[in-house]
Amino acid sequence: MKLGGQCMCAAVQVAATTSRPDLRVCHCEMCRRQNSFAFVSIQVDQDSIEMNGPVTVFKSSDWAQRAFCKTCGSTIWYGMQSDTHRNLSAGLFGKTDDVLVQEYFVDECILGAGFDGAHQKLTRDETFALFAPSTGDTE
Ligand SMILES: [Zn+2]
Predict the structure, then answer these.
(1) 21 three-state secondary structure
(2) For the domain that residue 113 is a member of, what is the CATH number?
(3) Does residue 137 form part of some domain?
(4) I need a labelling partner for 54 at 20 to 30 A (CA). Which of 9, 21, 120, 121 fits?
(5) Pick from 40, 30, 49, 53: which is nearest to 114 by CA?
(6) CA of 89 to the centre of ligand 1 (A)
């Protein structure tokens, strides 16, 4: 399935291919600071991404990078250096019937609780365990 989207100012245009555009939500401190609440993303293979525009890549920790639009500041993606996936900001794309499949750092959600639903809900410790040895993007 082909995804096509853009940042808030439309300077950054993004296209990517995914077999299933599942949504993932992260409540870690860095995602909260960057996005005010949680970061909602769609994981794609980085080789499938076609991107044009003023994208700035920021090394946010020893293991991860985050990209944003240099013009308007919209979050573009999060990715770990140890794999070839990129988690594109779901907000770049129009509303679809995407399904929430995983929620990370639910015990750090700014509202005290995460999203309702039957998806997998992982605490901070469980999130770190899932992504070990390259842990999630915190502190
Ligand atoms: Zn922009």
Answers:
(1) coil
(2) 2.170.150.70
(3) no
(4) 21
(5) 40
(6) 13
pLDDT in tens, 62-93: 989 999 999 999 999 999 988 889 999 999 99
Number of domains into which the chain is organized: 1
Q: 127 alpha carbon to ligand 1 midpoint, in Å? A: 30
- How many A from CA of 54 to the centre of ligand 1? 8
Q: Would 139 be classed as within a structural domain?
A: no
Contacts with 6 (C-beta within 8 Å, 6 or more apart), sequence order: 12, 13, 14, 92
- The model's pTM is 0.89
Structural domain containing residue 119 = 2-131
Q: How far apart are CA 113 and CA 20, in angstroms?
A: 26
